[in-house]
Specification:
heterodimer; A: 396 residues; mainly alpha; two-stranded antiparallel sheet; 20 helices; 2 strands; elongated; B: 113 residues; alpha+beta; 4-stranded antiparallel sheet; 3 helices
C-alpha cells in the first residue's frame, strides 16, 4: 500500500475513509480498493516532495474516483455489471489531480465497518475484510498473522466481496433496533483480532486497539466500545511482563516495572470517564474494570469477585465462573472456591484442571493436586505452559 | 434484488401445535403472500408425496420420496423482491417455520443475462 515515509501515518489514518467513500460511490469493494491503492501510490510519489495537501482525504478520493471512472470507461462489461454507465458518461471536468473537489467527503467508515462485520458473512471473512479494508493491512500481512497462505486469504476476501454484492448486503449503519446486536458483532471481531494478535502477532493487537479507537471516536455514546478499548489497552500493557525469557509468569509475580503504565493510565481514564450509573455496564466494560483492578498495588479480591459474578450473570459462561472462583479463593479461601469449581462442567478446559490443582495444593491435598496438574498438562498447548505445570507437579 | 426464501420445516413441528396455534400459523403463511414485495411462491405437499427423477446412462429412473432424507423438510418457498438482504431477512424471520425449529434459507436469484 504505502511506502514507509513521513506520510505513512496520514495513509494509515485515511485508507478506510477513502475506501469507504469509494464503496459508497461505486457500490463495489474491489473497484474501490484498486482505485484507492492507485491514488495512494500516486500520493506516495508526489506528497514527499509537494507536501501533504490541506485536504488529504479529498485529494485521495478525487484521484481515486478519476482512476475508477477511467477504468469503467475502458471496461464496459464491468461498468454495466455495476450499472454505472451513467457515472462513466459524466464528462471529465478536466480537473488536474491537485484540483480537489472542495465539498467535504462524508465519513462513511461506520458504514464500512458494519458492512464488513455483517452476520451474513462467515466470521473469518468478517475478520479478513475488516483488516483489509478498515485497518488497511496488506493481504500478505493478514495471511501471515492468521497462519494461512496468501492465496487462501485472497480467496476468502474475494468470496466475501462476492457475497456482499450477490446477496445484497447493504452498505449502511444498521437501524436503531438492529444496532445493539450488530455492534456486538463488530466488537467481537475487533476483540478476536486482538486475541489472535496477543500471543502470536503483536501487530494485530496494535491494529485491534487502533480499530477500537476509531470506533470509539465514531460512536462516542456507546459505552461498550470504550469498555473494549480500555480492556485491550489494559491487557496490552502487561504483555511484556507475561514472559521471563521463555517462562510463563503469573500475574501476581509479574515485574510491574515492565508494564506499560501509559496504556494502563489510558485504560483507567476511559473507565473513570464512563457513567456507571447511567447505563448498566456490558461485558467488555466489566472485564476492563477487572483488568484495571488487577493493576492495583493491592488487589481488591472481593470487588473483583463481585465483578466476575456480574459478568457471569450477563454471559452465563462457565469460564467466567471459574475466574470468579479464583478471585473468591483469594477473598474467602480455597475451600469455598473449590466447591464452586467442582460444580463447573469444563472437563476439557486446561485451566479448570490447573485451577483445581492449585486449590487442592493450598488445601494440602497433594496427591489430588498432582493428579489435577497432570490433567492440565495433558491439555496444555504451549511449551511455556507445559514447563510451568511440570514445575508445579515437581513441587507438590 | 430478488430472493428465493426456501422454507425448511422441522418434521412434526406443526403437528405438535394445538388446532388454534396451527390455524394462526396458516394465517401467517397466507398473510405473507400479500406482503409488499412478495412476487410469488408456493406451499409444497409433504415429502411422502414427492417423486425423485434421475437420469443415469441415458435411463430415466423414477423413485418414490424426496431426494434426501434430511432432518428438515422443504415445505415451500416465497419469491421476494427487496432493497437489500436485511429487508429479506426481516421477512424471513416472520416465516413461522423459522421459530418452530426450522429455518429459512435466503438465496439471491440470478438475474437473467
Amino acid at each position: 500500500m504505502a511506502e514507509k515515509a513521513p506520510v505513512e501515518q496520514v495513509f494509515r489514518d485515511q485508507w478506510s475513509r477513502v475506501v469507504a467513500a469509494l464503496i459508497s460511490y461505486f457500490g463495489d469493494f474491489d473497484l474501490a480498493e484498486e482505485a484507492a491503492a492507485e491514488a495512494f501510490a500516486i500520493a506516495a510519489q508526489r506528497w514527499p516532495s509537494d507536501g501533504v495537501p490541506d485536504n488529504p482525504v479529498g485529494w485521495l478520493v478525487t484521484a481515486a474516483r478519476r482512476r475508477a471512472i477511467d477504468r469503467l470507461r475502458r471496461d464496459r462489461v464491468l461498468a454495466s455489471k455495476l450499472r454505472l454507465l451513467a457515472a462513466t458518461e459524466a464528462t471529465d471536468t478536466g480537473q488536474g489531480e491537485d484540483e480537489v473537489d472542495d465539498t467535504a467527503i462524508p465519513d462513511e467508515r461506520l458504514e464500512l465497518i458494519f458492512t464488513c462485520c455483517h452476520p451474513a458473512l462467515a466470521a473469518e471473512a468478517q475478520v479478513a475484510l475488516t483488516l483489509r479494508t478498515v485497518a488497511g493491512l496488506a493481504t500478505d500481512e493478514i495471511a501471515r498473522a492468521f497462519l494461512v497462505s496468501a492465496q487462501t486469504l485472497k480467496r476468502r476476501l474475494s468470496r466475501a466481496k462476492t457475497k456482499i454484492a450477490a446477496a445484497g448486503i447493504p452498505f449502511r449503519v444498521p437501524p436503531p433496533d438492529a444496532l445493539p446486536e450488530r455492534l456486538a458483532a463488530v466488537l467481537a471481531v475487533i476483540y478476536l483480532i486482538f486475541n489472535e494478535g496477543y500471543d502470536r502477532a503483536p501487530e494485530l493487537a496494535t491494529e485491534a486497539i487502533r480499530l477500537g479507537r476509531v470506533l470509539a471516536a465514531l460512536l462516542p455514546d456507546e459505552q461498550e466500545v470504550r469498555g473494549l478499548l480500555a480492556l485491550m489497552l489494559l491487557h496490552e500493557a502487561r504483555r511484556a511482563a507475561r514472559f521471563d525469557g521463555q517462562d510463563l509468569v503469573l500475574l501476581q509475580d509479574q515485574d510491574r516495572s515492565r508494564w506499560d503504565w501509559t496504556s494502563i493510565a489510558e485504560g483507567r481514564a476511559i473507565l473513570d470517564g464512563l457513567d456507571w450509573a447511567a447505563v448498566s455496564p456490558g461485558p467488555y466494560t466489566i472485564q476492563a474494570a477487572i483488568a484495571a483492578l488487577q493493576t492495583e498495588e493491592r488487589l481488591n479480591w472481593p470487588l473483583i469477585a463481585a465483578l466476575y459474578g456480574r459478568l457471569a450473570e450477563l454471559t452465563d459462561s462457565p469460564v467466567v465462573r471459574l475466574n470468579r472462583a479464583i478471585a473468591i479463593a483469594e477473598a474467602d479461601g480455597p475451600a469455598v472456591a473449590l466447591a464452586i469449581v467442582d460444580r463447573l462442567d469444563l472437563p476439557e478446559y486446561q485451566y479448570w484442571h490447573s485451577t483445581r490443582a492449585e486449590l487442592l495444593r493450598r488445601l494440602g491435598r497433594a496427591d489430588e493436586a498432582r493428579a489435577a496438574y497432570q490433567a492440565a498438562l495433558a491439555r496444555a498447548r504451549t511449551e511455556p505452559e507445559r514447563r510451568f505445570l511440570e514445575g508445579r507437579i515437581a513441587n507438590c | 434484488m430478488r430472493y428465493a426464501l426456501l422454507v425448511y420445516q422441522k418434521p412434526g413441528a406443526e403437528e405438535a401445535l394445538s388446532q388454534e396455534e396451527r390455524e394462526q400459523v396458516i394465517r401467517e403463511y397466507l398473510a405473507l403472500r400479500t406482503e409488499p414485495g412478495m412476487t410469488g411462491g408456493a406451499a409444497l405437499h409433504p415429502p411422502e408425496m414427492a417423486t425423485t427423477v434421475r437420469v443415469q446412462d441415458g435411463k430415466v429412473i423414477v423413485t418414490d420420496g424426496p431426494f434426501a432424507d434430511s432432518k428438515e423438510i422443504i415445505g415451500g418457498f416465497y419469491l421476494f423482491e427487496a432493497d437489500n438482504l436485511d429487508h429479506a431477512t426481516a421477512i424471513a424471520a416472520r416465516i413461522p417455520a423459522a421459530r418452530l425449529g426450522g429455518s429459512v434459507e435466503i438465496r439471491p436469484i440470478v438475474s437473467p443475462p
